[in-house]
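Handout for the seminar on molecular recognition.
Each group receives one record of this type.
Step one: identify the two inputs.
Step two: read the structure output and locate the region that could contact nicotinamide-adenine-dinucleotide.
Step three: write two sentences on what you found, then compare them with the reference statements printed after the record.
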Amino acid sequence: MKILISGALGHMGRAVAAQASAQGVDIVAGVDAATGTCDFPCYASFDALPDCSGAVLIDFSRPEALSPLLDYAVRNRLPVVLATTGYSPEQEQEVDRVARQIPVFRSANMSVGVALLKHLCREAAKVLGESFDVEIMEAHHNRKVDAPSGTALLLYDAIKDAYAEPRQAQLGRGGRDCKRQHNEIGIHALRGGTVTGEHEVCFFGPAERIRLCHSAEDRSVFASGALKAAAFLADKTPGRYTMEDLVTSAH
Ligand SMILES: NC(=O)c1ccc[n+]([C@@H]2O[C@H](COP(=O)([O-])OP(=O)(O)OC[C@H]3O[C@@H](n4cnc5c(N)ncnc54)[C@H](O)[C@@H]3O)[C@@H](O)[C@H]2O)c1
């Protein structure tokens, strides 16, 4: 397999490069808005990038990179793994449109453990029912630019539809008049130090509490997930693919 890394000089880009080298995956090039050194040719923009036909593009960068990245991928017919978080609703629609032309794998979390957590949360919401209040907490390193995390939003999406009346996201709480409403799911973001990624979903019942949680101990878990997604995508027809497709294909 050949890959092209967008955000190649960032923390995740470098983790993908390290895993790819360890697995014998060929890194044809990188793209990054910053300057720095790496073991493969790295370009400042998609406009400067030569034709990388036959590669799968893996992106861990910033939402601003999305449009030029998708233009390049469509022009060169490259499958794309999009792992960047913080896209706007309009950008998600742009991804939908492009997925009619090329295969696109999109997940705010590339870990199989989080795919399982999502499944367990949806089942817990169905089993526990309307009387339980749900709150999501997440913690990340102090460099993270978006909040709440894409993973917290992914978990919220999975849970909210389990209820007859979909529950609304409540991002944090503060003030003198913010009593919890029954039809909301609180989402709370902690930031500090070097935390790779922690997510906890609490179901608070009348006299009991269920907590489901996941801790990423090292960012290599996301890098190896992205490489698995790239291998999965390499021979796919155009469409939008998710972790569910990847996990299901493994059985
Ligand atoms: N899906 C997942 O499993 C997962 C896991 C970890 C991180 N992430 C996400 O991946 C993204 C990157 O995380 P990180 O910790 O590596 O951040 P980082 O800041 O270390 O790296 C981002 C890199 O992107 C580069 N960049 C910025 N704008 C660019 C542009 N327009 N074009 C090309 N490159 C550009 C930066 O120069 C930087 O090198 C974030 O959105 C983060 O939330 C996703």
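Reference statements: The chain is about 35% helix and 25% strand. The domain at 112-216 is CATH 3.30.360.10 (Dihydrodipicolinate Reductase; domain 2).
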